[in-house]
Amino acid sequence: MSTGYLALVMHAHLPFVRHPERPDYLEERWFFEAVTECYLPLIEVFEGLVGDGVDFRLTFSLSPPLLTMFTDPLLQRRYLDYLDTMIRLGESEYQRTAQDAELRSLALFYLGKLKGARRMFAEKYDCNLIQAFSALQALGKLELITCGATHGYLPLMRTKEAMRAQIGTAVDYFTRHFGRPPAGMWLPECGYTSGVDQLLKEFGVHYFFVDTHGLLHADPAPVNGVLAPAACRSGVAVFARDPESSRQVWDRQAGYPGDYDYREFYRDIGYDLELDYLKPFLPSGNIRVDTGFKYYRITGPGPHKEIYRPEAAARRSAEHAANFLFNRRQQVAFHSRHMSLPPVVVAPYDAELFGHWWYEGPQWVDQLCRKIYAEQDTVRMTTPGEYLQKHRELQAVELPMSSWGEGGYSLVWLNPGNDWIYRHLHHAEGRMVDLADLHAGAQGLKRRALNQAARELLLAQSSDWAFIIKVGTVVQYAEKRIREHVYRFNRLADQIEQGNIEEVFLNELEHADNIFPGLDFSIYSRHRQGRYRDYGAGRAHFRILMLSWEYPPGTVGGLARHVYDLSRALIRHGDEVHVITCPVPGEDAYSLQQGVHVHRLAPEQLTAADFLTWVGQMNRGMSALSDRVTEQWGRPDLVHAHDWLVGEAGLQIRDRYGVPLVATIHATEHGRNHGIHTALQRHIHSREAQLTNEAVRVICCSNYMAEEVTGLFGLPDGKVRVIPNGVDPANLLAGRSREPDCADLDTRGGVPTVLFMGRLVPEKGVQVLLESFPAVLSRVPGARLVVAGRGPYQDHLQGRVQELALEGRVSFAGFVDDLGRNRLLEQARVAVFPSLYEPFGIVALEAMAARVPVIVTDTGGLQDIVEHGVDGFKVPPENAGMLGHYTAELLANPLLAQELCQKAWRKIITRYDWYYIATETRDVYREAGER
Amino acid sequence: MITENVCLPGAYQENTLVLLVQNPEVIFAYWELSNGQWLAVAGYGGLHLRLYEINGNGPGCWLDGQGKLWTEINLPPFTSDWYFCDLSPGRSYCSELGYYGSDHVFYPILRSNRVQTPRVGLSSRPGEHALVAVDLTVAAAPAQETATGQLPGSIDFYRRQEHN
Do A239 and A383 share a domain, yes or no? Predict the structure, then answer.
């Protein structure tokens, strides 16, 4: 009966070093040497264990660049050429050492290894090592997992989309090669940062690893320390590196690999012998490199080295394996007494340590597996996947950012030597995400260019480049790689944006950087539809009952507009939408409007004069009408209720048909009234509480609203989703004399015009705007302000205009319809929305869509819409001084205004398109359906 | 066509201010201003970089009375990045780049993302031991056809070439 487990984890990775442009590229040798010295010997060890009936378990992470290189025909051919050269060198060495029996036997030893490697690679595996790993996985001995697509270090990425592309591309690529998705992921450099677990979950990954402190410093503290996994709240398990077993292997001084009987890595004939002799075997005939012919053992700390004796080294590796096992047994036996789960010692190592740096490493693994199997019962080998099958209830923790690099965080990849790379990588990230949204569904040449741009970005992100710059080895090469991939990305992005893709250039890049043939650039989209796990299983289209008390025509507020735009956008996704709403004079009880089924109550159903009685009538009517709709069209997949007014009907329909209820809360009674003061308000508030608590998902249009709704009604984390309102730029064109264009900002409207639109009530803040205006006039004397809208505050505001001596500078345009709004926007050089309270702020989106630079207050939903100094300006509420300053800045600096205007327009079309809003809404529907 | 030894762009003509966490006590900031913003700030004194420590858990960098100014750097000319050192672990930070107007008011022209320094040491939250079940659902394979053969370098591509 075993007491605990050992999970030996090997992470195999090399950066993508494939250089078709010329032969003899030095960096390709990294791959060739690793195949000869690490991957083939390890495979040989595993196969030997299988052959001898030794039951062992090992977790093996294969990074996607390595998988690509394993399967790449050019590198396969070049590896054979390399092996042939090395075999010739071995034969030459055999001749050269004829006078020295010891050296000669070593030359023969290496020659035999090389010939064996060639046989194994070319004949047994047909040049493709993936087959070997696949077979070992099929036998249940190896648990194969993968890593980030190009080993990009996640904590230093700027966008969630870039992290998703690293993770998703890797999972997809792994699945294509091995026919099943990886159970776990080795995060590049063990780099974890908040949110990574959710992305792993999105792609069906069950576990990942962090360094010791990455779990030890979690909150709350892990009750089992680091010898048992914990889990993120997302339900993804985390295993931590065991420090003791790490140290025994990794430690420079005390670690096993430094034993004096082991082979000395730094004495290689490539550096020791005459260049003339070596010439035929060296790259370009004159570059000294490691050849692998290393004849000495470590011997001691000094420069004196003695001949290497493989038999003595083999005895040592067996002793070290025994020592390692002894320590694990002690460790497991000691800790198991205090733990609620069986201990699992996670011992992760770079695979390239074994065989390359630590020549005897593969033998040590061999001995260790044999001893664990045959000599004791305390410790059994396991894999994280196997462990989780037995123990899936784990302690929930929140993990801090961490990595396994020097210092435990991001120092290695972010320091004064390499920090300059991030602005380029981040710029490319943002641009790639925009391109994916702007060119969704692109085909042909454009699609190829987008996919290649994504490949170039991924390749530029390899953590290897920043690492190499930090440790100062082949810095020029690393810098060159970053420069090249960023350049290629930017050039492709320019061509895609300008619509003139050079096919010759694209062809060359596809040849040179041919990683991930099946990559789909849409993985970078902010609105990527459907999570990986839904492919095939998820529902393609929904039949939705949409409940809204108002629907156009008959618009009273923004809610009608929202339901109208959302419903039409859902139709574009292929969904069937039935809107159930109130009657409007002149409208039929049923109509099909642009694909949306609109069902209206009969006017005689709504007779009550009392508000709440009327609401009751409406809900009963909607509930009854939904029966008729269902009878005729079939059972709905879900019911979506907009605001508390229709909540009762939503609940009834949910219960009657057993379908999920989703609710959108556009505004709350509490927010509208700054608190709950009357009996009616209390009643409405309780209805809101009921609806939001009963609905399986709640949608709010801004982070501000989500926080308000979550807090007011005590909703659990994760129940409320933020999906903004959309805007349809086409609606802003009617009535204009010219197409909207950021370039005409300095001439628009004759005089510099500032525009406000909205109801004239105190919370819209027009009084602050008026107070700010004298300062604007002192810098821009010709400026004027147009206030469009009406409301109870108008008289007061007009009084303020007089008090501030702004007559002739401020005009009140009164209520404007859509055409009037569009004409005012055409004249405006700046639009200002100085609200004190604003759940969303659709007017700001409309101004941005009409290419008017905006200034908004940093409050409510407005603060989500504008990024300060990037696509508009934000000022604190009720701060007239700041408001006047930024208004004058935009009027006085047309180039700046134009830049912000262009960024704002890009934001509108990449984030606030109704099609995208519908995409996100459908994700919520899908989640609701899963529950 | 593929040029070796290419240069990186000197500027991207965008307004951006980004914070990155190096370790629990160090945050790196970098920024860039567009031509239009450079023209606009030319009339003011030098640029200042502020770092705020933020409370609360909002997703953005909300400064409505929740944050405290941790430090302010009067930036030397031609600076485009900065390391903030000696910060506290387990805290949220956010930065602003701006200038002082003639009224001595600080006007931010850029606001950064919000970052959190990792917490260190054993958490003192006592005895909390909420369990979560690990999601072991096996993801379905992607719906698309395997797209090997599209690109030069893939095995199928080369096989095709050899046949032709």
Answer: yes
d(C-alpha A445, C-alpha A426), whole Å: 25
Beta bridge partners of B107: B99
Q: Any chain A CB within 8 A of the CB of B91?
A: no
Clarify whether residues A773 and A903 are in a common domain: yes
Interface check for A237 against chain B (CB to CB < 8 A): the answer is yes
Task: Give the contacts of B62 (CB within 8 A, at least 6 positions apart).
Answer: A858, A863, B54, B56
In which domain, by residue range, is A756 found? 734-912
Indicate whether A695 and A785 sit together in one domain.
Answer: no
- Return the residue of A nearest to B106 by Cα: A882
Both A694 and A602 in one domain: the answer is yes
Q: Which residues of B touch A184 (CB under 8 A)?
A: none
Report if residue A478 sits inside a domain.
Answer: yes
Residue B148 near residue B156, CB atoms below 8 Å: yes
A581, A599 contact by CB (below 8 A): yes
| Same domain flag for A396 and A272 | yes
**B162 near A CB under 8 A:** no
Asked whether residue A922 is domain-assigned, the answer is no
Predicted confidence (pLDDT) per residue in B8-48, tens digit: 999 999 999 999 999 999 999 999 999 999 999 998 989 99
**What is the distance, to the nearest Å, from the Cα of residue A588 to the centroid of all Cα atoms in its chain?**
47
pLDDT tens digits along A58-72: 999 999 999 999 999
Å from B27 to nearest chain A CA?
10
pLDDT digits (tens, 9 = 90+) for A443-461: 999 999 999 999 999 999 9
Residue of B nearest to A891 (CA): B40
CA distances from A22 to A25, A249, A571 (A): 7, 38, 53
Q: What is the CATH number of the domain that holds A480?
A: 1.20.1430.10
Residues A378 and A2: their CA atoms lie apart, in Å, by 4
User: Cβ(B50)–Cβ(A905) under 8 Å?
Assistant: no
H-state helical runs in A219-349: 243-250, 269-272, 275-278, 310-336
Torsion angle defined by CA atoms of residues B29, B33, B39 and B44, in that order, rounded to the nearest 10 degrees: -10
Return the exposure string of A700-735: e unless at least 16 CB atoms fall within 10 Å of the residue's CB, then b.
bbbbbbbbbbbebbebeeebbbbbbbbbbbeebeee
- B41 touches A: beta carbon within 8 Å: no
Q: Is residue A52 part of a domain?
A: yes
Q: Which of A366, A385, A408 is the last residue of a domain?
A: A408
CA distance A797 to A787: 10
Q: Average pLDDT for residues A563-570, to the nearest whole number?
A: 95
Taking residue A602's Cβ as centre, other Cβ atoms within 10 Å add up to 10
Tell me what percent of the residues of chain A surpass a pLDDT of 70.
98
Q: Residue B4's pLDDT is what?
A: 66
Residue A251's pLDDT band (cuts 50, 70, 90): confident
Mapped onto helix, strand or coil, the DSSP state of residue A832 is strand
For residue A477, being part of any structural domain is answered with yes
* Euclidean distance between CA atoms A34 and A89, whole angstroms: 18
Q: Based on the fold, state whether residues A820 and A876 are members of the same structural domain.
A: yes
The domain spanning residue A618 has which CATH number?
3.40.50.2000
Q: Are residues A223 and A276 in the same domain?
A: yes
Task: Give chain B's domains with CATH numbers.
Answer: 16-116 (2.60.40.10)
- Asked if B119 has any chain A CB less than 8 Å from its own CB, the reply is yes
Q: State the catalytic residue, choosing from A161, A189, A637, A648.
A: A189
Per-window interface: A 417-436 vs B, CB < 8 A? 419, 422-424, 426-427
pTM over cut 0.90: yes
Number of H helices, E strands in chain B: 2, 9
Pick the last residue of a domain from A384, A408, A432.
Answer: A408
Say if residue A512 is in the same domain as residue A560. no
A503: nearest Cα among A448, A548, A557: A448
Domain count for chain A = 4
